[in-house]
TrEMBL record:
Record domain Amidohydrolase-related: where: 36-84
Source superkingdom: Bacteria
Alphabetical list of InterPro entries matching this protein: Amidohydro-rel, Metal_Hydrolase
One Pfam family, short name: Amidohydro_2
Organism ancestry: Bacteria, Bacillati, Actinomycetota, Actinomycetes, Micrococcales
Listed name of the protein: Amidohydrolase-related domain-containing protein
């Protein structure tokens, strides 16, 4: 497993893909495709801030062209669900 491909299970036993800790420009091409579909409920955003500034991170993710629904899941809804908040 490489960076950003850290497979884990939640307390409920759901298999999830660990937080993506990379700048969006270096995400593997297949991961970018899979986030649109089968991984949209299994991935959450994480950051190495201040190593990668927030303005760059958000700009790069916006440039990927994901729907608002997918972006909402990646940036907060999946984390809220998995962490139970």
């Amino acid at each position: 497993m490489g960076r950003g491909d850290d497979r884990r299970r939640t307390a409920q036993g759901q298999r999830v893909l660990g937080a993506v800790r990379l700048g969006a420009e270096i995400l593997p091409p297949q991961l970018k495709v899979d986030i649109r579909s089968r991984l949209q409920d299994k991935i959450m955003f994480g950051t190495d801030h201040p190593s990668i500034p927030f303005d760059r991170l958000f700009r790069e993710w916006d440039e990927l062209g994901y729907s608002d629904d997918v972006m909402s899941k990646v940036f907060h809804r999946n984390a809220e669900r998995i962490l139970g908040v």
